[in-house]
Sequence to fold (147 residues):
Amino acid sequence: MENNIKLDKATPPPLPRSTMTNDHSAEANYGIIDWFKKGMRNYTNFSGRARRKEYWYFFLVQMGVMIVAMLLDAIIFSSETGLFYIVAALGLFLPGLAVTIRRLHDTSRSGWWFLIGIVPLIGSIILLVFLASDTKPETNKWGLPAK
Fold:
């Protein structure tokens, strides 16, 4: 059966579903590992935006992987920085950098602000504030809001 919608002259026709809208209904059911996998899948995507949840869950799992790698190195090789740690650090460097830059884009800042972390002490604090700040609700040059 076909749905017939009668419109009068005062009612505008329904708009087609735009490709510019963000549909985050699937992300509502994401767990910590799902956010981490999303960050890993976008490891070469330095454009766009990453919401706070995506960044911090990725960071949490990344730190967990690094700690497990250090523990394995301590148990197997009797050192804290061995093979497992180096493999984990190299494997997570590029995805971590990409999600950090996308997070800065979400706060309407350039990814180059990542370099402020080079400044001793105060740079890391400023970067932490930037990464923890809320998503800017307006569309910016990196795309639609992430949430």
The chain has four helices and no strands.
